[in-house]
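Let's practice the habit of predicting before peeking. Look at the sequence and jot down your guess about where helices and strands might fall. Then scroll down.
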Amino acid sequence: MLSILDMSIVEVSLTTPSLRKKPSLHQTLLCLSKRSPVFHDKISREDLSRIILHIQGCRGKYFKTVPSAGATYPIEVYIASSGNIFPLPKGLYRYISCKGKLVQVADEGVTEDYLLIAAVYERTIRVYGPRGYMYVREEVGHLLQNLALSLVSHGLYYEYTLEPSLKVPKGKPEAKVKVYRADRICSEELEGMSLDEIIVRRRSIRSFQKRPLSLRKIIDVLKWSLQESPNKYFTVFGSKACSISLYVVVANVEGLEEGIYYFNTDRGSLELVKRGSFSRKLYESALMQDCVLKAPANIVIAGSRNELVDYIAGAVGQNIYLNSTAQGLGTVAVGAFYDEEVADVLGTDMKPLYIMPIGVPIVSLERVKYRV
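Done guessing? Here is the structure:
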């Protein structure tokens, strides 16, 4: 049983980590699907700082490496160290965001190494009302996906539990991610922009160039964001992601007529569902947000009607962000829309979870100054 301290007794300073040239995003995703880390190695203080950068580090002046509805940032991150994996004295630590330090909040009862993701729902609810609960669960999914990729890229693997029965000083525990050294490594090697670079460059894009979207690029984004075959799942949730479907509302994509398409994961192809122009109807269903109307295509994530799919949609949405960045494309996760109207546009009984406009961004996706 953890004994929560009234006052911190240990503070650990983090370093600003370097960005590695390898592994690539696709290599890490493929190894994630094989449930094997890229390599084995001891975790250094810089590695720990980099893992934290990946899941809750700061980009520029105001933003973080994981997107948040209205930049409300409800997530609190804790790290438990038994002294076996993380280079920390035994205890439970709270990450102080953007301050470069961990503060010990418990010193007894820690017998394993894990990260605990908690949420202060009020930060988002006070802005978005009850819909904010879905936004927070989706944000947890975004973070868990980045964390899974980060752990795999640092030679570790994990087991996750949603809504664990644990006590922390701030926030409601949403996910516990137990970390361990795997007994095998992934032999896959794929070239491309590094995972580190993509995580730091990723940003929400709402303005797009007036040019057609490459069909090849959008297919690659879809494939690497969800699954390539019945046995290759590219999110932290593995086969549970089968509860998610991807639709694309096409306005200006090379080689495709306007219409609504369903992404067939078995074939890796887009299948026409409805012919015609539906961007304006989708735009009206999404509270008339310009990015939805002006994007050459909109990816719509839909799923079964339960809370678990909110987390899964966040993980898939994070993959869409990362894979779009790797392709030189931009996107943004839009969660404000009328659910039944969007479902009617798509012609589905599933619950719409995200609309993600995608296209060539007006601004360049350059690396920005980052810190932990």
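How did you do? The longest helix spans residues 132-153.
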